[in-house]
Amino acid sequence: METTIKATNLTKSFGDFTAVDKLNFEVEKGEIFGFLGANGAGKTTAMKMLIGISKPSAGDAVVAGYQVSNQAELVKKNIGYMSQKFALYDDLNIKENIQFFGGIYGLDSKSIEVKYNRVVENLGLQDYAKQLVRSLPLGWKQKLAFSVALLHQPKIVFLDEPTGGVDPVTRRQFWELIYEAANQGTTIFVTTHYMDEAEYCDRISIMVEGEIKALDTPKVLKKEFGVSSLNDVFLKLAR
């Protein structure tokens, strides 16, 4: 299998405080990799390094074939990213958002038009294409933001709490989009605080105080800790 993310002793310090301490892990092509941790555990700091917006204090990571320490701009061009807060422009309509981000990703106008039609059709948004994005329900916004993150067919998509605040039905629909992308070979790196969602991941890592304390499939971790749910695994590690 092709490795799309490889962290080697990845570390981030702020003065005397070490927020992320010597992370070592690999993620394979097409894998759905869950990155879990309580607030303050260091997962957001780690993700910022992986997506090329924060330089490691020590160690390094290779993401989509590029080193985050000295090839951050190339990392950014070869990944998709959906932030915890909605990542599109509320005062533009769907087509204008896709045109804008497609241009940022370097797509030509013909490709943007093709991808716009595909996104609108796949999400069933034909009747809403001219509405400002602010008028769309949150669930549709999130699914649209994910689709936009895939416009340039990146090798990896990073999702930071992508289903926060949406209803269970929309969460399930969102995960169907994730599975579809993974089946097409896109690596999905996702943070979530929903333990039932973590069950959908191929593997998960759990961070505690800047370190990865557990990393394996949900099934193996539950067996290893002698519990029936990932939430119980999480609670044991957090003690």
Binned, the helix content reads 25-40%
Count of individual helical segments: 9
Shape: globular
CATH topological fold name:
Rossmann fold
CATH arch. level architecture: 3-Layer(aba) Sandwich
Sequence of strands across the biggest β-sheet: 6-7-8-3-9-10
CATH homologous superfamily title: P-loop containing nucleotide triphosphate hydrolases
| Structural class determined from secondary elements | alpha/beta
Question: Biggest β-sheet: count, sense, barrel?
Answer: 6 strands, mixed
Give the C-alpha Rg.
18 Å
Q: Could you give the count of β-strands?
A: 10
Whole-number tally of structural domains: 1
Mean pLDDT: 92
pLDDT under 50 segments (min length 5)? none
Q: How far apart, in Å, are the first and last alpha carbons?
A: 35 Å
The CATH C-level class name: Alpha Beta
Q: Strand content of the residues, in percent? A: 25-35%
Descriptive notes:
This protein is 37% helix and 27% strand. The chain is globular, with a radius of gyration of 18 Å. It has a six-stranded mixed β-sheet with strand order 6-7-8-3-9-10, with helices on both faces. A four-stranded antiparallel β-sheet has the order 2-1-4-5. A hairpin with a 2-residue loop joins strand 4 and strand 5. The protein contains nine helices and ten strands. The chain has a single domain (3-87, 135-238), classed as 3-Layer(aba) Sandwich (Rossmann fold), CATH 3.40.50. It has 239 residues and is of the alpha/beta class. Helix 5 (138-149) runs parallel beside helix 6 and helix 8 (218-225) packs across helix 9. InterPro entries: AAA+_ATPase, ABC_transporter-like_ATP-bd, P-loop_NTPase. This is ABC transporter domain-containing protein. Residues 5-234 form the ABC transporter domain. Keywords: ATP-binding, Nucleotide-binding.
